[in-house]
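Q: For a teaching session next week I want to show students how multiple molecules come together into a single three-dimensional assembly. I've collected the sequence lines for a complex. Could you give me the predicted structure tokens for the whole thing so I can convert them for display?
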Amino acid sequence: MTFTEIVRRFFLIDLLEGMWVTFRHQRPSDLVTEQYPMQRPDISDRFRGQPRLAKDENGKVLCTACGACALACPEKLIKVGSLRDPETKKKVLTEFDFDMGRCMFCGLCEEACPSDALSLSKGYELALYTREGMQLDRAQLERGVEGKVYDK
Amino acid sequence: MIQSILQYLHSDKTPGEAGSLFWVVVYVLLVFAGISVGVIFMNWFERKIMAHMQVRIGPMRVGPHGLLQPIADALKLIIKEDLMPANADKIVFWFAPVCVVMTAFCGFIVVPFGPTHAITDMNIGILFMLGVSSLGVLGVIMAGWASNSSYPLMGSLRSGAQMVSYEIAMSMTVVSAVMMTSMATGTGTMSMIGIVQAQMQQHTWFAFSFFPVGLTALGVFSIAMVAETNRAPFDLPEAESELVAGFLTEYSGFRWSLFFLAEYASMMAVSAIATTLWLGGWLRPFPNFLGGKNWDLAFSLVPGITFLLIAALCLFYFTKMPRIRSMRADALGLAGFGAVLGVIGLVMLLPGVRVRVQDIYWFTLKAGFFMYLYIWYRTTFPRYRFDQLMKIGWKVLLPISIGVVVMTALIGVRHELLALVWR
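A: Of course. Below is the structure for the complete assembly, covering every listed component.
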């Protein structure tokens, strides 16, 4: 044992250093706890949460009903219904069913979408009392599922 | 009768010495209430300070900043079912928490909160305190034995071994402090009030006399007192990972809360001993060096100003509370708390009150420092193994404390001899 080690042991320097660490962390700005309902966490942009169908600035749905997402989905939980418009000869989206109860939020549908219409957004308050609520139709996907706002 | 009650107000003795039964009862009730409130606040402070040291926030929901949390906990404990194991020794099981609480509170009979603010002054005060506080181990062993279960028995055996072995190192350092009291007058004293007055006469706290002997004694005592009260990092009797909850395993509800109360009361008692023996008890900082009327006035204003500052802090955080309907009761509660503290602070500034209160204030401040140390140790240090604990007690602290006693004696004799030569 060297001299400095002996001095460190004699004066309990290691213990004092540990005490200084805990003392230092009492600063209120060091707090990491979030008080969840009052304070909202910062969600990363890469978070994959509640599925949404995006609209452009005119309120028109961006989805072209190509069905790429339904093909890409490993769980086969997306159903895209479409009609061919007789005048423009284009597909028009009629219905869009998304079974969130089976979704594993892998994000393959989001990647497959050529028109950036379908996305897994940052919404995370998705808990429900029944499974039926997990079947999202087109209107819900466009509107988004609203989380309940708690007063207390 | 009334005359004898009023007569005491003019005496400068403790009620026990003056023989005034009425004032003894009043002081006992005051001390009991004070300790209980102290335990409640200590519980809150412990949870909050521990939380902040671990970068958490601690209790926040019951009352503003969780201020009512200890009261909610106490209510919960009282209405909890009172369980007693079927094969327990009923009488001993019942008596163990009573014994622990009684011994924990008995020590406060001689604690001097001020020159007259003690229930009584015994000429063997410090001995009485050590003796009574070491009786607490009896209650712990009773609890472990009466539970008729393995974990409590193991826990209480550990606790007994630990308390007995650390008692020795603790008593040795106390001997050194008692020896120091004889320096100025030639005759030592074991009375708690006498020890503080000796520090006043010698113009130094015993922590700083015979440097570094006094400081070493305080260091040894402050380690031994943590082990003595079974607190982290020496909380082996209740080591959760090995012994569930040690001797507390079979206790629940009100009985458990009695043990809890006793633990904190004995923590306060040993903090009071450390304060009295080494940190000058009720003496304000520099009572001789900064003496005189002006300094007396300045220091006597400190308690009131402290309370006013805390009140201002409460009111400041009241303005910072989020203005939503569900927080309104909390915000008003915080403002009310601040207002009450402010009124207490203003009362403490009155001339008649401030001279009587300032001793208690300084004493509580110094003892509170040790209570803070308890929490600080608990967050910082991991628990010792049992053989390490025994090694520290017998191989490290005991030799150091014996050395402290010998050094105190040698230096004291040298002083005496020098005084003889000079005369």
